[in-house]
Amino acid sequence: MVSLYLSLSGLTVDPEKVELALCKLDQFLDEQHNITDGVWSYFIPELGEGGACSLFGHLQEAPFDLSTLLLPSDKNRIALSRLQSLVNFVQQASNVDWFGIYQARSTSEGEQLLKLAYSGAPSRPLFPINQKFAETSNNIQVVMSGRARVINDVQEYVTNGGEYYTCDPKVQAESCLPLFDDANNCVGIIDAEAFSKDFFTPNMLALLIAVCIKIPQYLPE
Fold first, then answer.
1. CB 116 within 8 A of CB 101
2. pLDDT band at 2, cuts 50/70/90?
3. CA distances in angstroms from 30 to 1, 33, 75, 210, listed in the order given
4. How many domains does the chain have?
5. Which domain holds residue 181?
6. What is the C-alpha to C-alpha distance for residues 208 and 213, in angstroms, rounded to an integer?
7. pLDDT of 163
8. Residue 83 CA to chain centroid, in angstroms?
9. Where are the beta strands (DSSP E) in the chain?
10. d(Cα 20, Cα 214) in Å, to the nearest integer?
11. What is the mean pLDDT of the chain?
């Protein structure tokens, strides 16, 4: 399972580090005896002209409601609860400044990445999955290609000509990793952001990969 994920995502990380992280994650999940309702709504920023970027620090008055895109079934309630537990695990184990789990879903406006659970500052709930948006969005590049993207120095990356979608100007490092279903299709991503450079060490990536291996079994219907 670990070797397959590494092959599909294009990441080069010691498989033993990932296996160790998976053991810690399984232990954490075993200790989660109570299943509570997941977070079904959250505040989101206003979007800039044309909806291409978020206006950081300017929140919309009404929160975004996941039930507009997800059936509020018992299965989905449990799924969102489990996903939030995984977010909490990552935050506690890494102290990463922002972390989110996204699922690719069909909407009335086409295929989009939907933010299901996260920790950190408010951010946009949906990303259009199309080639135009992929030009500046790591999230969309990853879900369309199934290949991970790790940027440990955002400023250097942009200086060297890389396109970058800025949500929080404090972010100095970012990792976007794909999520795969049983048929090896990319069905979503995780996005992790840090306010310091070189945050995503091999040990940190091993932790994120372990979570990516676990997440697909908890994605909502």
1. yes
2. very high
3. 20, 7, 19, 15
4. 1
5. 2-218
6. 9
7. 73
8. 11
9. 41-42, 45-47, 54-59, 64-65, 98-107, 110-119, 126-128, 149-151, 173-180, 186-194
10. 14
11. 90
> Alpha-carbon torsion 201, 204, 206, 212, what sign?
negative
Report which DSSP code applies to 63: P
For residue 6, what is the domain's CATH number?
3.30.450.40
Q: Is the dihedral of CA 90, 1, 4, 115 positive or negative?
A: negative
CA distances, 103 to each of 146, 185, 202, 215, 221 (Å): 13, 12, 25, 10, 10
Q: How far apart are alpha carbons 192 and 118 in whole angstroms?
A: 10
pLDDT of residue 96: 97
Fill in the amino acid letter for 127.
F
Alpha helices in 69-175, H assignment, sequence order: 74-94, 131-134, 138-145, 154-159
